[in-house]
Write a structure and sequence with these properties.
By secondary structure, the protein is an alpha+beta fold. It has two domains: about 140 residues, Aspartate Aminotransferase, domain 2; about 110 residues, Aspartate Aminotransferase, domain 1. It is built from eight helices and ten strands. Strands 5-8-10-9 form a four-stranded antiparallel β-sheet. A two-stranded antiparallel ribbon has the order 1-4. Helix 2 packs across helix 4. The protein is globular.
Length: about 280
Amino acid sequence: MSYRATDGMFQSVDLERHIRRLHRAVGNAIADGKHIVFAAGSVQLINALVYALSPDADAASPPARVVATAPYYPVYRTQTNMFDGREYRWGGTTAPWANASRNSTDGDGFIEWALIRDEKVAKKASEYVQNSIMGASRDTQLRMLGIVKAMLASLHGEEDIFAFWHGVMSTRWRRLSAAVSRSRRISLQKMAPGYCTYFKRVTEPSPAYAWVKCEREEDEDCYNALLKAKIITRSGVWYEAGTRYTRISLLKRDDDFEVLMERVADLVNAEKYGEAPGSSSM
Protein backbone atom coordinates (compact mmCIF):
# COMPACT_ATOMS: atom_id res chain seq x y z
CA MET A 1 0.00 0.00 0.00
CA SER A 2 1.05 3.60 -0.48
CA TYR A 3 2.83 5.52 2.28
CA ARG A 4 0.53 8.48 1.68
CA ALA A 5 -2.61 8.35 3.80
CA THR A 6 -4.90 11.38 3.52
CA ASP A 7 -4.84 14.17 0.91
CA GLY A 8 -1.31 13.20 -0.09
CA MET A 9 -0.08 13.40 3.52
CA PHE A 10 1.98 10.73 5.25
CA GLN A 11 -0.20 10.65 8.38
CA SER A 12 -3.80 9.50 8.66
CA VAL A 13 -6.06 12.31 9.85
CA ASP A 14 -8.56 9.72 11.09
CA LEU A 15 -5.88 8.00 13.18
CA GLU A 16 -4.79 11.34 14.65
CA ARG A 17 -8.40 12.07 15.61
CA HIS A 18 -8.82 8.71 17.37
CA ILE A 19 -5.48 9.07 19.17
CA ARG A 20 -6.67 12.40 20.58
CA ARG A 21 -9.90 10.72 21.71
CA LEU A 22 -7.92 7.93 23.39
CA HIS A 23 -5.66 10.31 25.33
CA ARG A 24 -8.67 12.39 26.32
CA ALA A 25 -10.46 9.29 27.66
CA VAL A 26 -7.45 7.82 29.46
CA GLY A 27 -6.24 11.16 30.81
CA ASN A 28 -2.52 10.40 30.52
CA ALA A 29 -1.70 13.29 28.18
CA ILE A 30 -3.21 16.49 26.80
CA ALA A 31 -3.45 15.97 23.05
CA ASP A 32 -5.71 18.88 22.13
CA GLY A 33 -3.84 21.79 20.61
CA LYS A 34 -0.72 19.70 19.97
CA HIS A 35 0.82 18.24 16.83
CA ILE A 36 1.13 14.46 16.45
CA VAL A 37 4.22 12.92 14.85
CA PHE A 38 4.27 9.21 13.96
CA ALA A 39 7.36 7.01 13.76
CA ALA A 40 8.18 3.33 13.29
CA GLY A 41 9.12 2.58 16.89
CA SER A 42 10.47 4.46 19.89
CA VAL A 43 14.10 4.51 18.73
CA GLN A 44 13.31 6.37 15.53
CA LEU A 45 10.87 8.66 17.33
CA ILE A 46 13.42 9.63 19.99
CA ASN A 47 16.10 10.32 17.39
CA ALA A 48 13.64 12.45 15.43
CA LEU A 49 12.95 14.49 18.58
CA VAL A 50 16.68 14.80 19.34
CA TYR A 51 17.22 16.09 15.81
CA ALA A 52 14.25 18.48 16.01
CA LEU A 53 15.33 19.95 19.37
CA SER A 54 18.98 20.39 18.36
CA PRO A 55 20.38 23.63 16.87
CA ASP A 56 20.70 23.85 13.10
CA ALA A 57 23.95 22.65 11.57
CA ASP A 58 24.92 26.18 10.54
CA ALA A 59 24.14 27.67 13.97
CA ALA A 60 26.94 29.29 15.97
CA SER A 61 25.97 27.44 19.16
CA PRO A 62 27.78 24.19 20.09
CA PRO A 63 26.14 20.79 19.43
CA ALA A 64 23.37 19.80 21.82
CA ARG A 65 24.36 17.15 24.40
CA VAL A 66 22.21 14.02 24.33
CA VAL A 67 22.01 12.31 27.73
CA ALA A 68 20.00 9.46 29.21
CA THR A 69 19.36 8.18 32.72
CA ALA A 70 20.46 4.60 33.38
CA PRO A 71 18.96 2.13 32.84
CA TYR A 72 18.37 3.02 29.19
CA TYR A 73 18.39 1.13 25.90
CA PRO A 74 21.96 1.07 24.50
CA VAL A 75 20.75 1.95 21.02
CA TYR A 76 20.07 5.49 22.27
CA ARG A 77 23.83 5.93 22.70
CA THR A 78 25.00 3.95 19.66
CA GLN A 79 22.52 5.62 17.33
CA THR A 80 23.54 9.10 18.49
CA ASN A 81 27.23 8.28 18.01
CA MET A 82 26.61 6.63 14.65
CA PHE A 83 25.04 9.71 13.07
CA ASP A 84 27.84 11.90 14.51
CA GLY A 85 25.97 15.04 13.47
CA ARG A 86 26.95 18.66 13.79
CA GLU A 87 23.69 19.30 15.60
CA TYR A 88 24.16 16.95 18.57
CA ARG A 89 26.51 14.47 20.26
CA TRP A 90 26.31 11.87 23.02
CA GLY A 91 26.82 13.37 26.48
CA GLY A 92 26.63 10.30 28.71
CA THR A 93 24.35 9.35 31.59
CA THR A 94 22.55 11.85 33.79
CA ALA A 95 22.65 10.03 37.12
CA PRO A 96 23.85 6.86 38.87
CA TRP A 97 21.60 3.81 39.08
CA ALA A 98 20.45 4.66 42.59
CA ASN A 99 18.46 7.60 41.23
CA ALA A 100 16.75 5.62 38.50
CA SER A 101 13.61 3.62 39.05
CA ARG A 102 12.48 1.82 35.93
CA ASN A 103 12.94 1.29 32.24
CA SER A 104 10.11 1.80 29.81
CA THR A 105 9.00 -0.82 27.39
CA ASP A 106 10.30 -0.66 23.88
CA GLY A 107 7.81 -0.43 21.03
CA ASP A 108 10.11 -0.92 18.05
CA GLY A 109 8.47 -2.66 15.12
CA PHE A 110 5.24 -0.81 15.94
CA ILE A 111 3.93 2.65 15.25
CA GLU A 112 4.47 5.19 18.03
CA TRP A 113 3.76 8.87 18.27
CA ALA A 114 4.75 12.04 20.06
CA LEU A 115 2.54 14.96 21.10
CA ILE A 116 4.41 18.19 20.41
CA ARG A 117 3.24 21.68 21.30
CA ASP A 118 5.74 23.68 19.23
CA GLU A 119 4.82 23.69 15.53
CA LYS A 120 8.40 24.24 14.36
CA VAL A 121 9.72 21.31 16.41
CA ALA A 122 6.88 19.07 15.22
CA LYS A 123 7.53 19.95 11.58
CA LYS A 124 11.26 19.27 11.91
CA ALA A 125 10.64 15.91 13.63
CA SER A 126 8.08 14.94 10.99
CA GLU A 127 10.49 15.84 8.19
CA TYR A 128 13.15 13.63 9.80
CA VAL A 129 10.79 10.63 9.85
CA GLN A 130 9.59 11.24 6.29
CA ASN A 131 13.12 11.62 4.93
CA SER A 132 14.36 8.47 6.69
CA ILE A 133 11.54 6.00 5.97
CA MET A 134 8.81 8.11 4.32
CA GLY A 135 6.84 7.89 7.55
CA ALA A 136 4.84 4.98 8.90
CA SER A 137 3.25 2.96 6.08
CA ARG A 138 -0.46 3.24 5.40
CA ASP A 139 -1.19 -0.39 6.28
CA THR A 140 0.59 0.09 9.64
CA GLN A 141 -1.53 3.14 10.33
CA LEU A 142 -4.70 1.27 9.36
CA ARG A 143 -3.84 -1.56 11.77
CA MET A 144 -3.18 0.94 14.54
CA LEU A 145 -6.47 2.68 13.79
CA GLY A 146 -8.30 -0.63 14.25
CA ILE A 147 -6.52 -1.21 17.58
CA VAL A 148 -7.28 2.27 18.89
CA LYS A 149 -10.94 1.93 17.88
CA ALA A 150 -11.16 -1.39 19.73
CA MET A 151 -9.56 0.15 22.82
CA LEU A 152 -12.00 3.06 22.77
CA ALA A 153 -14.97 0.71 22.38
CA SER A 154 -13.92 -1.36 25.42
CA LEU A 155 -13.20 1.48 27.86
CA HIS A 156 -14.69 0.83 31.32
CA GLY A 157 -16.54 -2.21 29.98
CA GLU A 158 -16.29 -5.94 30.63
CA GLU A 159 -13.50 -6.25 28.04
CA ASP A 160 -11.57 -3.14 29.11
CA ILE A 161 -7.99 -3.78 27.95
CA PHE A 162 -6.52 -1.39 30.54
CA ALA A 163 -8.31 -3.09 33.43
CA PHE A 164 -7.36 -6.53 32.12
CA TRP A 165 -3.65 -5.82 31.73
CA HIS A 166 -3.38 -3.88 34.97
CA GLY A 167 -4.88 -6.85 36.76
CA VAL A 168 -2.47 -9.29 35.11
CA MET A 169 0.70 -7.22 35.53
CA SER A 170 0.00 -5.98 39.07
CA THR A 171 -0.65 -9.58 40.17
CA ARG A 172 2.62 -10.73 38.62
CA TRP A 173 4.55 -7.91 40.27
CA ARG A 174 2.95 -8.66 43.64
CA ARG A 175 3.80 -12.37 43.41
CA LEU A 176 7.39 -11.75 42.31
CA SER A 177 7.89 -9.14 45.04
CA ALA A 178 6.59 -11.54 47.69
CA ALA A 179 8.93 -14.30 46.51
CA VAL A 180 12.02 -12.07 46.34
CA SER A 181 11.26 -10.48 49.72
CA ARG A 182 12.20 -13.82 51.34
CA SER A 183 15.71 -13.58 49.92
CA ARG A 184 18.86 -11.87 51.15
CA ARG A 185 20.69 -12.77 47.97
CA ILE A 186 18.60 -10.75 45.52
CA SER A 187 16.35 -7.69 45.80
CA LEU A 188 13.89 -5.85 43.58
CA GLN A 189 13.63 -2.17 42.73
CA LYS A 190 11.33 -0.22 45.05
CA MET A 191 8.07 0.84 43.44
CA ALA A 192 5.30 2.69 45.25
CA PRO A 193 1.59 2.81 44.39
CA GLY A 194 0.57 5.81 42.33
CA TYR A 195 -2.53 7.68 41.25
CA CYS A 196 -3.95 6.49 37.92
CA THR A 197 -5.74 9.08 35.80
CA TYR A 198 -7.71 6.36 34.02
CA PHE A 199 -9.03 4.47 37.05
CA LYS A 200 -9.13 7.72 39.06
CA ARG A 201 -7.67 6.04 42.13
CA VAL A 202 -4.35 4.94 43.58
CA THR A 203 -3.25 1.68 41.98
CA GLU A 204 -0.56 -0.89 42.70
CA PRO A 205 2.57 -1.00 40.50
CA SER A 206 2.20 -3.02 37.30
CA PRO A 207 5.57 -2.81 35.49
CA ALA A 208 6.45 -4.75 32.37
CA TYR A 209 9.98 -5.41 33.65
CA ALA A 210 11.53 -6.06 37.05
CA TRP A 211 15.05 -4.92 37.90
CA VAL A 212 16.90 -7.34 40.17
CA LYS A 213 20.03 -6.58 42.19
CA CYS A 214 22.37 -9.30 43.44
CA GLU A 215 23.36 -8.42 47.01
CA ARG A 216 26.07 -11.00 47.75
CA GLU A 217 29.67 -9.99 47.10
CA GLU A 218 30.39 -13.15 45.12
CA ASP A 219 27.41 -12.50 42.80
CA GLU A 220 29.03 -9.55 41.06
CA ASP A 221 27.65 -10.78 37.73
CA CYS A 222 23.94 -10.94 38.50
CA TYR A 223 23.00 -12.14 35.02
CA ASN A 224 25.13 -15.29 35.34
CA ALA A 225 24.08 -15.81 38.96
CA LEU A 226 20.44 -16.05 37.88
CA LEU A 227 21.29 -18.00 34.75
CA LYS A 228 22.73 -20.75 36.96
CA ALA A 229 19.26 -20.93 38.51
CA LYS A 230 17.80 -21.29 34.97
CA ILE A 231 16.34 -17.77 35.10
CA ILE A 232 16.90 -15.94 31.82
CA THR A 233 17.34 -12.18 32.19
CA ARG A 234 19.06 -9.32 30.40
CA SER A 235 22.21 -7.98 32.02
CA GLY A 236 22.25 -4.44 33.34
CA VAL A 237 25.50 -3.92 31.42
CA TRP A 238 23.40 -3.38 28.30
CA TYR A 239 21.68 -0.44 29.99
CA GLU A 240 24.74 1.00 31.78
CA ALA A 241 23.23 -0.12 35.08
CA GLY A 242 26.24 -2.30 35.98
CA THR A 243 26.78 -6.04 36.40
CA ARG A 244 25.08 -6.08 39.81
CA TYR A 245 21.73 -5.52 38.10
CA THR A 246 19.76 -7.58 35.62
CA ARG A 247 16.29 -7.25 34.12
CA ILE A 248 13.49 -9.80 34.19
CA SER A 249 10.66 -9.52 31.69
CA LEU A 250 7.17 -9.96 33.11
CA LEU A 251 5.66 -9.90 29.61
CA LYS A 252 5.21 -13.65 29.34
CA ARG A 253 2.53 -16.19 28.66
CA ASP A 254 0.91 -17.51 31.83
CA ASP A 255 2.72 -20.85 31.61
CA ASP A 256 6.10 -19.16 31.17
CA PHE A 257 5.46 -16.87 34.13
CA GLU A 258 4.60 -19.86 36.32
CA VAL A 259 7.92 -21.47 35.34
CA LEU A 260 9.70 -18.22 36.26
CA MET A 261 8.04 -18.19 39.68
CA GLU A 262 9.02 -21.83 40.28
CA ARG A 263 12.65 -21.06 39.52
CA VAL A 264 12.68 -17.94 41.69
CA ALA A 265 11.23 -20.04 44.53
CA ASP A 266 13.94 -22.67 43.96
CA LEU A 267 16.61 -19.96 44.11
CA VAL A 268 15.25 -18.56 47.37
CA ASN A 269 14.79 -22.01 48.94
CA ALA A 270 18.31 -23.05 47.92
CA GLU A 271 19.61 -19.97 49.70
CA LYS A 272 17.72 -20.96 52.83
CA TYR A 273 19.12 -24.49 52.89
CA GLY A 274 22.57 -23.61 51.61
CA GLU A 275 22.20 -25.53 48.35
CA ALA A 276 23.04 -24.62 44.78
CA PRO A 277 19.91 -23.76 42.72
CA GLY A 278 18.59 -26.83 40.92
CA SER A 279 20.39 -29.32 43.15
CA SER A 280 18.60 -31.84 45.32
CA SER A 281 19.57 -32.92 48.81
CA MET A 282 20.04 -36.61 49.55
